[in-house]
Amino acid sequence: GAVVSQHPSRVICKSGTSVKIECRSLDFQATTMFWYRQFPKQSLMLMATSNEGSKATYEQGVEKDKFLINHASLTLSTLTVTSAHPEDSSFYICSASPITDTQYFGPGTRLTVL
Amino acid sequence: KQEVTQIPAALSVPEGENLVLNCSFTDSAIYNLQWFRQDPGKGLTSLLLIQSSQREQTSGRLNASLDKSSGRSTLYIAASQPGDSATYLCAVHDGSSNTGKLIFGQGTTLQVKP
What we know:
The complex is a heterodimer of chains A (about 110) and B (about 110). With about 110 residues, chain A is mostly beta strands.
């Protein structure tokens, strides 16, 4: 149990376009979902925390207008990278939490912006 | 502000050796501490979770300890195997908020040579 999926697993896009990444909890309801990004050989950095039906809380330094997060249901959160640039290329990982002290992680999405 | 540090950054050992990975954190007010495994280009697999009231957890060849007062945790891997090669991440559940935020260390990349 406690499976989290992400789609797509890999995406390549041109600079200036927008990319949407989906995070789904497959067998549980996630009251909270988290979005992380990971640069090569670096650790995970929390970008934002989202609760179903409310606005996401962004970490300091993360542009909320660039990284749009929607948590429309208890099983789905989306991250949209708007007007993507090469520096946005990274590995994006989501996690979903049914309760506050447990997070289940997705397999990640590799974004490459040309 | 909570900071998590992992030492060493990389480790190479021959198969069969026992090894210890270290994690330290600056603020002892944590809810729990978790060890994850990450294979290249993949998401995170939770290995062990230690609650703040616990001192250790064991799963198979893995043993994690927690000394909250000194801000340290260790992950002990017994009889290492080539399949253990991966990056190991330590994360603390931030005790300063009830949002479930995890703060990650930089990771230790382990290579077990046959």
